[in-house]
Write a structure and sequence with these properties.
A nine-stranded antiparallel beta sheet has the order 3-4-5-16-12-19-10-9-6, covered by helices on one side. The termini are far apart. The chain is α+β, with helices and mostly antiparallel strands. Keywords: Dioxygenase, Endoplasmic reticulum, Glycoprotein, Iron, Metal-binding, Oxidoreductase, Signal, TPR repeat, Vitamin C.
Length: about 625
């Protein structure tokens, strides 16, 4: 082959490789499978497929090994029977021959058999083919951080989580937040990995309880070997001892280090640590050092963290009595011919900010269709950071943007939203519809949907600020996932197929500071949401459900509410209820009428001037 021919062949091969890469890059489902599995439950569910393939490979391996072991057992029984028969004469030339043959040939073949290595090689080859579709180590870290997030926000007991139960423990009171149909407990190795993630971050507040549980479980099963485990009792004791030392509890560090040496007495590093801890305690003014109080790290630096978590802990439960007449339910047509024959069930949740829940806004079929359209295009949700769009720990989800040209059903849905709200939801007056799927412990910490800074990239879109949020719940969850309004002091649970609506801007175009809200972590369930923010041109735009600015990092937002937070004596709220007296005092100072709490379990609907019980 000449130089020209070789060059042509090389170019052809290069083009073929590029074509394959382009094809793979253009496959959104394949790309989504490789990217941030932990950040969307649909990606986590997709990870079941490669594990099923691995199960098939392991089943083939086990069958091969079972056949090999059956054959080895046959050989063993044959030879053993000859040794057990005392009448076996070596003088028989046939028996003598087979004895020599076994020792010279058969045993060599048994010991050096390639069947075992061929079986394990087939298993390893199969794993390597599946490996590209498996979650990355970053997903393991993200899933571990999610468990810590749920532990914090819902005040979950680590021992309970390890047993598979979701319990909030406050003092002597134990509250069951969720009772799974089937208990699934964690192993010592599972707990160790969660604690190790916190340990590596220098977060000993979370590392210690998880490592303590790992030590406890490893102690109970000491001596048992599990092929899949990466850690051991010694590993857990090692990390827990140093975590206690870093947290200031030298006596616990010493006790755990001494226990470690019982299992591994030749470990020189641990022996040096024991001497160091003993010296520190001897030099200390009080050898009986009390346990150090480990403060929980405020990683996101949220000034409203206690309020946010208190609202999430209500899990969106409703009050037992309907006491506030200014909140009501009705059938809504918005004077639109489009809705006259099929009005929407409207529930006024709150007045300031004005928040409305529209029940059964979409059907089950529509919700499923939207999820199906979005799923192949889901990517890690981002927020604006200066000129860049970045994934952040305070927003864990995946999202996709859908044009109404994707499916006629989306056009119908846009018409329904426009008829109900009176807003133009078509570009350029609106952004495309955004579909969000939350991940393990998926959440979105307190934020505004509207831009609070004139430098926000939103203003470069030439559509003005975001005027309103229209958020549709496309699925139900078993626990958690409520939408919490921080300064409004109420939370709204996930109601499947319902739509939550509120205004982000006042008529003046200024942002409404009371709309600071958060998506509480999903405790159990697969939460999907579809949202659009819509409005007219000249400062009344629309957008997908994404925050361009975040309260915790926004000095303007903080200044807006510092005085109100200082004057409000917040108490642990029930969902849809707010602390009435403190809020009334603040509203009187602002010259505004105080608004009430939330809806009851039994709302009244007005039908042709008559009252009928609904919901």
């Amino acid at each position: 082959m000449g130089p020209v021919a070789r060059l042509a062949a090389l170019l052809a091969a290069l083009l073929a490789v590029l074509a394959v890469l382009a094809l793979r890059a253009g496959d959104p489902a394949r790309a989504a499978a490789r990217d941030d599995t932990f950040s969307a439950l649909t990606s986590v569910a997709r990870a079941l497929a490669p594990e099923r393939r691995l199960l098939g490979l392991l089943r083939s391996y086990l069958r091969g090994e079972e056949a090999r072991l059956r054959d080895l057992t046959r050989f063993y029984d044959k030879v053993l029977s000859l040794h057990e028969d005392s009448a076996t004469p070596v003088s028989n030339p046939l028996l003598a021959f087979t004895l020599i043959k076994r020792l010279q040939s058969d045993w060599k073949n048994v010991v050096h058999s390639l069947e075992a290595s061929e079986n394990i090689r087939a298993l390893k080859d199969g794993y390597e083919k599946v490996e590209q579709d498996l979650p990355a180590f970053e997903d393991l870290e993200g899933a571990a951080r999610a468990l810590m997030r749920l532990q914090d926000v819902y005040m979950l007991n680590v021992k309970g989580l390890a047993r598979g139960v979701f319990q909030r423990v406050t003092g002597s009171a134990v509250t069951d937040l969720y009772s799974p149909r089937r208990l699934f407990s964690l192993t010592g190795d599972d707990c160790f990995h969660v604690g190790k993630v916190a340990y590596d971050m220098g977060d000993y507040y979370h590392a210690i309880p998880w490592l303590e549980e790992a030590v406890s479980l490893f102690r109970g099963s000491y001596g048992e070997w599990k092929t899949e485990d990466e850690a051991s009792l010694e590993d857990a004791l090692d990390h827990l001892a140093f975590a206690y030392f870093q947290a200031g509890n030298v006596s616990c560090a010493l006790s755990l280090s001494r226990e470690f040496l019982l299992y591994s007495p030749d470990n020189k590093r641990m022996a040096r640590n024991v001497l160091k801890y003993e010296k520190l305690l001897a030099e200390g003014p009080n050898p009986a050092v009390a346990e150090a109080v480990i403060q929980r790290p405020n990683v996101p630096h949220l000034q409203t963290r206690d309020t946010y978590e208190g609202l999430c802990q209500t899990l969106g439960s409703q009050p037992t009595h309907y006491q506030i007449p200014s909140l009501y339910c009705s059938y809504e047509t918005s004077s639109s011919p489009y809705l006259l024959l099929q009005p929407i069930r409207k529930e006024v949740i709150h007045l300031e900010p004005y928040v409305v829940l529209y029940h059964d806004f979409v059907s089950d079929a529509e919700a499923q269709k939207i999820r199906g359209l979005a799923e192949p295009w889901l990517q890690r949700s981002v927020v604006a950071s200066g000129e860049k769009q970045l994934p952040v720990e305070y927003r864990i989800s995946k999202s996709a943007w859908l044009k109404d040209t994707v499916d006629p059903m989306l056009v119908t849905l846009d018409h329904r939203i426009a008829a109900l709200t009176g807003l133009d939801v078509q570009p350029p007056y609106a952004e495309y519809l955004q579909v969000v799927n939350y991940g393990i412990g998926g959440h979105y910490e307190p934020h505004f949907d509207h831009a609070t800074s004139p430098t926000s990239p939103l203003y470069r879109m030439k559509s003005g600020n975001r005027v309103a949020t229209f958020m549709i719940y496309l699925s139900s969850v078993e626990a958690g996932g409520a939408t919490a309004f921080i300064y409004g002091n109420f939370s709204v649970p996930v109601v499947k197929n319902a739509a939550l609506f509120w205004w982000n801007l006042h008529r003046s175009g200024e942002g409404d500071g009371d709309t600071l809200h958060a998506g509480c972590p999903v405790l159990v369930g697969d939460k999907w949401g579809k949202a659009c923010l819509s409005g007219h041109r000249n400062g009344w735009p629309t957008s997908g459900y994404t925050s361009m600015d975040r309260n915790s990092a926004d000095p303007a937002a903080h200044a807006l509410k510092t005085k109100m937070v200082a004057e409000r004596s917040w108490r642990s709220p029930v969902a849809f209820q707010r602390s009435q007296k403190p809020k009334a005092r603040v509203r009187e100072e602002k010259g505004e009428q105080a608004s009430g709490g939330g809806p009851s379990q039994h709302c009244l609907f007005l039908v042709n001037g008559r009252q009928g019980r609904g919901l």
